[in-house]
Design a protein that fits this description.
Layout lengths: L1 E5 L9 H9 L3 H10 L2 E3 L15 E5 H11 L4 H5 L7 E4 L3 E6 L15 H8 L4 E2 L8 E7 L2 H12 L4 E9 L6 E13 L3 E6 L4 E13 L2 E8 L6 H8 L22 E7 L5 E3 L8
Parallel strand pairs: 7-13
Antiparallel strand pairs: 1-3, 2-3, 4-5, 5-7, 6-7, 8-12, 8-13, 9-10, 9-11, 11-12, 13-14
Amino acid sequence: MIKHFVINEDYNNCRFDRFLKEKFFLTHGLICKSLRKGFVKLNSKKDSHNVILKNGDIVSIADVIYSDFDKINKKNDPKLRKNNNFKLQIIHEDDNIIVVNKQYGISTQGGDRIHFSLIDEVKKHCENARIVHRLDKETTGIIVFAKNKQTASEISEKFRKNEIKKEYVTLLDGVPETKNGIISTKSRKKYSNNIGSRVVFDEDGEYAESYYEILEIIDNQALVFFRPKTGKMHQIRIHALEINCPIVGDEKYNNNYKKGQKLKLKSVFIDLGEFGRFSLSKEFNLN
């Protein structure tokens, strides 16, 4: 049996693979396989995953896709067994956005090896929810989702222009030499087979800047406030490393990481301009 879906304004000018990921939670691998075999078609024809959709286009999906995806999700993955007890923690919701308190250990977005993600859970609450920014899997705290295409476009543009103000609290392994300051680096993304993608310092890389301030010193650790000016991958984590005080529980960047430790990094404030300002307590479990 074939199901047909008509593209409306929400997905006009959207990439085909993005539509399939957001609407049906399909992984990139399954999308490519389905397009290649003709299980998913655009306007009754095979097409590429990166084609741009237009109003009125018809996407056809064979039932076999859903059964294949069910098999993937039923693999004996301990992370999957935990989602039965997952509760979405909504801080704020209006006609345009949903603000969520993200829990530890859940990815913002799914992928070939990620079968349970925050956007999947948000879409159960609001089918048209869209990602406008991300937090690392191990980072907790405030994250925002748009409820419509226009809002997603406007907030994404604000992020691109570094107009969104964000604040984080973290526990550092060590005490910075100065009480406060500005950290600036140039870095690039690098992939490692052992711990996945990470960032390395590189003078030819992308510029990143953060302000920090010590809130409290606990033994040889420091509770620190960070306000990133830019929004690069792992920015606060590598900026902590830059001042020789990596974040406690950071498996990628802290040589003193101990198995089982949780990353002590929390998103506590975001200012979205006309869309609102939202905050959380700066406290978190130090154990």
